[in-house]
Amino acid sequence: MAFANKDIYVFFDDGDVLNNNKIRGKQWQKLIGEFMAPLFGGNPEDWGLANAKIIKDFINKGIPTLMYEHKEKNHSQFIEWFREKWINDMFDYVGIDRPDHGDYKKIYYETAEYVDLRVRSAFPGVIDTIKTLYNDGFHLYTASGTESIELNYYLEGMGIRPYFKKLYGPDLINVLKVDNKFYEAILKDLEIHPNQAIFIDDKPYYLNIAKKVGVHVIQACLTGEFKPEFEYIVKDMKNLPRIIEKLSDNEL
What is the extent of the structural domain holding 82? Predict the structure, then answer.
């Protein structure tokens, strides 16, 4: 029996699905310097370079290496460790004395708020596509390795936050996006069957894990970083509603 749109749940990764990470990364470097230098001193460009180095160390071939090195942690444990590393590495790189440890969390999230709300890196067609899917009756969510608080800022900046329900980052389920447990926790939280879910991601690693859980997948091939490996792919976000319709007709 085919599902109606109102029974289908569509999950979007953020980086290189909704937003272009290369464009966003360059904007992050500029914006973080704007925010940090007036507060703590140092050169704005150095703050940007410091953050770029941390991100480079964090990610290898599109996969967040540091998460895998700490995959025995739940999200709460990981983010506490990462916030401290991020602050320490940033201040050490710029050559500024580290702040009081009690201020680390505040600095981390205030920086994220300032930058994330100002970034403009959406792929062409994303905003109109989200509105179309929403108006067609689909349930829209995120499924990202980024925390929900930052996803909220990004989507607010894009003007599409009202079209989404929960913004699943690992904090909402306290599970890192490293293996099948991430996808299983989302399905359990929503109390839905895997066959009702469509996950859109750019990275084959995550898509293969998701498929093993039993959900449907669409590979976003918007940057050319990864070759198309799946039956359903999207190369232009304007075409996503048509691809979801095709998947729904064939498999749901």
Answer: 22-116
182 has pLDDT over 70: yes
Long-range contacts of 49-52 (CB under 8 A, 24+ apart): 49/93, 50/89, 50/90, 50/93, 50/94, 51/90, 52/25, 52/28
Using only C-alpha atoms, the chain has a radius of gyration, in whole angstroms, of 19
SS3 assignment for 63-118: EEHHHHHCCCCCHHHHHHHHHHHHHHHHHHHHCCCCCCHHHHHHHHHHHHHHHHCC
Nearest one of 55, 60, 56, 34 to 46, comparing CA atoms = 34
Please state the domain count of the chain.
2
Angle at 110 between CA 146 and CA 51, to 5 degrees: 65
Our CA angle for 250, 161, 112, nearest 5°, is 120
Whether residue 135 contacts residue 178, with contact meaning beta carbons closer than 8 Å, is answered with: no
Based on the fold, state whether residues 189 and 100 are members of the same structural domain.
no
Record the tokens describing residue 74, joined without a space. 């739940």
DSSP output for 154-179? HHHHHT-GGG-S-EE-HHHHT--TTS
Q: What is the pLDDT of residues 76-116, one digit of tens each?
A: 999 999 999 999 999 999 999 999 999 999 999 999 999 99
Measured over the CA atoms of residue 213, residue 215, residue 219 and residue 220, the dihedral's sign is negative
Q: Which of 193, 113, 105, 99 is nearest to 150 (CA)?
A: 113
Q: Both 81 and 37 in a single domain? A: yes
